[in-house]
Amino acid sequence: MTTSTALLLADLAGVAVFAASGASAAVAKRLDLFGVVFVGFVAALGGGIVRDLVIAEVPPLAFADWRYAGTAAVTAAAIFWLHPQFARLRTTVLVLDAAGLSLFTVTGTVKALEAQVPPVGAGLIGMITGIGGGLVRDLLTGEIPVVLRREIYALAALAGAILVVLLEGLGHTGPIPLTAAAVLVFGVRLLALRRRWSAPVPPLRPPPTGAPGPPPQ
Amino acid sequence: MTTSTALLLADLAGVAVFAASGASAAVAKRLDLFGVVFVGFVAALGGGIVRDLVIAEVPPLAFADWRYAGTAAVTAAAIFWLHPQFARLRTTVLVLDAAGLSLFTVTGTVKALEAQVPPVGAGLIGMITGIGGGLVRDLLTGEIPVVLRREIYALAALAGAILVVLLEGLGHTGPIPLTAAAVLVFGVRLLALRRRWSAPVPPLRPPPTGAPGPPPQ
Amino acid sequence: MTTSTALLLADLAGVAVFAASGASAAVAKRLDLFGVVFVGFVAALGGGIVRDLVIAEVPPLAFADWRYAGTAAVTAAAIFWLHPQFARLRTTVLVLDAAGLSLFTVTGTVKALEAQVPPVGAGLIGMITGIGGGLVRDLLTGEIPVVLRREIYALAALAGAILVVLLEGLGHTGPIPLTAAAVLVFGVRLLALRRRWSAPVPPLRPPPTGAPGPPPQ
């Protein structure tokens, strides 16, 4: 399997899991059929469209290659009809989201490097490709974006993007090192979820002695 | 009248009705003069800017041709000063919105086809051009986007975009078939509004026997 | 100092103040370290990315030149650790925001003119470059965008953008006229804040005689 075939498959797999993630979030909000397909579509293709715009690959793949839109629409519609019972839906969204994050981060970084974007910019584009779909999904379904609440989300993507940039700089391209980077993102994200890792919040000034501190907003 | 003149006029008419739609929504929220003009501007030109970016027509028409920004600003300001009394404003917004949806869907699809985007992608770009302005207007004025609540909205646009793609594929271009597609979108949307058509929502698991089901959110 | 060096420094200064503005808003919302850096990053670079996309300068400077992302990240992180006590934070955000608005409006307008965008479009792109970062910052932190509430915000940017377009048309380029335009935007914005200038709101129909009018929303 060539790198370009592997990239296509990884990209379509990312489209499918993000479409499922978006559709599940929309089902949880009780949106109707079109709303479910639309949120799935945007979650699956939004990050890639932004990536293609900033690397001047136009029209973006989401519009140039019907397999992208087709994968997103079929997956989201399948989730609408076949979704499991509601109890475990929130966990499903989080795991699918972690998988999409890892796949899109890696393919986004590789595409930016191939488009001659310098290393720092390519890593940022990879991270944004990874987190963009979930960000838009959360805005559309009225949730505070997960990326702002759980810092290990984007940090996991950033770690994977940096690993891809370093590996490419050292000449390690091809499916195996890229898979390793994807596994890194997925693993860090799942561990962070499971162990409830969190980043520091801004220091508060100490409350006056004897008085209770203000409640956090 | 040439196709290109007809497209320009249809595009400017779409700009005017979406500017009026955005401005009316902003008036209903009691925004001030600049807020009204700004929401009108974004509602009128947002969808087209996205369309031009994905088909690599830069700078987008909204910036390259002053008649677009001028039409949007004058229309929105006129709505601010001259808007009718408030009672029927919500209906006005919905009808103007349906007109803008139909005009932008058709011109967006045609422009994408002319930019050599494949049929599926061109239809999607047409639909996004049509629904983009209303989506942004709703986000800016704090409403849940109409496209997520009333599925026949984007579905009407999609039907019109598919009709344009089919007609172009059969060699039927020019104002008359395009007008037919625009009328289709407008008519379907108004019928859906009038008859309160709605799409299915996700199946719920049956409630425990004897207990009432949970109310939908 | 050449115009291009002056533009770079003004641009990086704008990045720093908008990153500080975004980070301060995120600190006020008690977001964690990554959330603070992310909001700072988007507030600092969002307007410029949109500007570069519409003038077809790809990849956008934010990704092509690591000094942009570096300035934003370091500034936002510094605000996280070193931010002053909370009492005066809101004022700090507003003043930094006014400075970013003035710098980005001027550099955005100049870049659009250099990319051969016609005058009206160049002024609009300059205004959008200036107001884009604050708009995204407010959406991400759950505030109604300041641009919709305080009309003198974008109006100040528009005045500065028009001044830049006029000065360039008259052949007055270089740091001194551009600095004058930046000072104009900053001054108008601060005056508007200090004196609570506001634009008219839509006329209401007079309440029935003897009955109190409805409270404004």
UniProtKB/TrEMBL annotation, chains A, B, C:
Q: Which Pfam families match?
A: Gly_transporter
Specify the domain of life of the species encoding this protein.
Bacteria
Main localization, broad class: membrane
Ranges in coiled-coil conformation = none
Its topology with respect to the membrane? Multi-pass membrane protein
Tell me yes or no: is Transmembrane among this UniProt entry's keywords: yes
- The residue ranges crossing the membrane are 35-54, 66-83, 120-140, 152-170, 176-193
Q: Which residues form the Glycine transporter domain?
A: 9-83, 95-167
Keywords, A to Z? Cell membrane, Membrane, Transmembrane, Transmembrane helix
Annotated compartments? Cell membrane
Q: Which family does it belong to?
A: Belongs to the UPF0126 family.
Designated name of the protein:
Membrane protein
Task: Give the species.
Answer: Micromonospora qiuiae
